[in-house]
Structures
1.
Amino acid sequence: MSIGGLMTTSVSGMDAQAQMLGTISKNVANSNTVGYKRASAQFSTLVDQSAGGSFQPGGVNFSARYGVAQQGILEATASPTDLAIQGNGFFVVQDSGGLTALTRAGSFVPDSNGYLVNTAGWRLMGYADSETGQAPAANAPVGLAPVNVNTAGLQAIASTSGTLTVNFPADTTNNPGPYPAANAPLSQYDVKTSLIGFGNLGNQVTLDIYGTKTAGNTWDVSVFDRAGAAPGGGFPYASGAIANATLNFDPANGDLTASSPSTLDIAIPNGKTIALDLSKSSQLASEFAVEVAKVNGNAPSGIDHVSINDDGQIYEIYKNGAQIATYQVPLATVPSPDNLSELSGNAYAISPRSGDMHIGKPGTAGFGTIAAEELEQSTVDIAAELTKMIQSQRDYTANSKVFQTGANIVDVVLNLVR
């Protein structure tokens, strides 16, 4: 072994310990960075080939590794767009230049254009629900677009479906008529209720629904647009019945018979056709009762707030209570998360050692769930970092002593010629 080899090895050791101190410094600096994964120092030996039986000390090689797969503690926040991942997966994000990356830093807020960006400026990516027929690729971020929560102003949705579940009183006597379907001035009916629907422009339409017992276990149901009612209300309506059906009930259990229609199609003026589900209605020995009455759609309304489910579905909640699904936020995984390449802004890029990206829906096999109004905290333990700093400082000093010893030996050799 040469004296030069001794000194080179100790320099290698000091350099490795200096870099370890660098990882400790970075960890301490990012102890409060959302989604930050602790860096650790990894050492491996460097072996020089021995010449003529002489020992060569070689040196030490340093590499930094991030514990990307380690789960951080989730902390509650007050922002509905703060997102955390419980379990496996990463958010797919993109920078202003179009570079796609992965991150666990979910401190997203809308920017001036309504795009959800985190503190590092990465935009959250998702599938737009308006793009029907889209088949997301499982191994590439194809079809993803930046999530925008400010795409709509006033929103009106035409009614297309609804549910009406009522009980028709079984002891009602048969009505002699004329029945509401005839729209005669003296039309007779036994029960009545109303529903609110919405047209294409969000215009409110009040639907008067009449029920008339025409025979044993048989009821006639007719629907009218209240806007066309006679002066003072009621019959005759200007437009006549906009929907009509004859319901037949089983006398044994009071349920609709198999031959009876279970859906009533109502053509809304200046709107769409509402498929009104009547399948759970009954005829029992009780008074007339409306158990369920609902119709989708809404009048023009502005956005009140955004809500995000644990499966990544983003909803825009309007001031009138309506909600619209706008984006589906996916998660991405790789076979070896700890081998991802680090990018600025607490993000990661795919590398040959990490394996290829796999994209899927949160909550499905292999993917964690999304927690809204929560953030994943840094995995750094300050006490552990300070302990490692003391150890690294001691090891650096020891390597410097070896170097100093080698320098002293060199001085002895040089003094031999004096």
2.
Amino acid sequence: MSILRQAVQEYVSMRRNLGFKLRDAGKRLFDFITFMEQHGASYITQDLALAWAQQPSNAQPDQWAKRLRFVRGFALYRSATDPRTQVPAKGLLPFQPKRARPYLYSDAEVRDLLHAAVNMPYRRERDKLRPWVYYCLLGLLSVSGLRLSEAQNLELPDVDLKEAVLTIRGSKFGKDRLVPLHRSTCKVLADYIRRRQRHWRKRPVSDYLFVSGWGNRLDSGDIHRTFYMFSRQIGLRGPSDRKGPRLHDFRHRLATRTLENWYRSNQNAERKLPTLSAFLGHVHVADTQWYLSGSPELMREAMRRLEHRWEERP
């Protein structure tokens, strides 16, 4: 193994131990080392990094910027042991990613989605629990702020209905956290778990809270396809729409509703923002602050407070 390949392996291992998944970055960095070996290079140069990052030539600019960002991170690490290393300068392949515009579900739309879920038709006996699986999954997403992957990975021991808390394990950046539940949510989950136990009492099933008709963890693709079906059924999407409200938008709904309630009750939303960040599993408060821009009501409230503050100045 070459020195550079060993260095990449150590770098990826170190970052993963710190909680970063580096699924794509790990593979791409080894591709970069192969590219360097083909050019007979023994250390990282900015020219080589740029040449590799801009492959393939027909890729989108965001992909070029992403590839160069992978190399920059590794180069910073490598420069500590090899002073010849050139760290690619920032701004060489500028690209400003566009965040998807959040959709804020109304209460009526959430009710319609849940109604569509619990009334979902099924043909096989093994799918008899499926309507309740999706009813509880969508309901939990709408009131908990969980990421879809976090809800998918919930196991029965992670659901403590007596203490009204969920344990989220190994979420983004490898962090664990506790998510409190309202008693009404506990009641619905308790009913679902009883149905789940009756449905699977004579057959083997995994420990995942939300399972497919085969008894294993729900597949992400199936979840999205089913959600799109519900969305079209209630008019959130047209029959041929490729874009529309997302499952992830349930997080936006919870965050904005929480902030709106704090403002309306004259609480110090800015001071309480770190609490909401911890609840959502955000690493930086700035990630939570972004939700302000997604709600017209929050923007109006922010402007009202700003105007009030200026009026109070002498």
3.
Amino acid sequence: MKIAPSLPRFATVGVAATIIHVLVAVALVALMNWHPGLANGIAFIVANLFSYAVNTHWSFERQMSLKSWYRFLAVSFLAWLLTIAVSWSVDAAGGSYQLGILLVVALIPGLTYLGHRNFTYR
């Protein structure tokens, strides 16, 4: 698998998925008066489905399948757990929440890319 074309494509999809997440969450809270937790949960699902479909076809040039969908979800779930662990660890060490966010943004996308490249789409 070629790293060169898949990495910038993966980053582009990640930015687009983040924008989708924000738009869906804001719409559900502001327009439909949903609870922010539920709105973000739904927004995560929508953004994750978008991310899977576009990354599968464009970033990694594969066909969608149940097997790759399960693997995509596993990598996404592990990234979510790691995000929580990094944030809590920074807080437990006395660091600011901004440092936690910075570390999450610096570490998680690259690790997620490697997980998808080496597990989801192998």
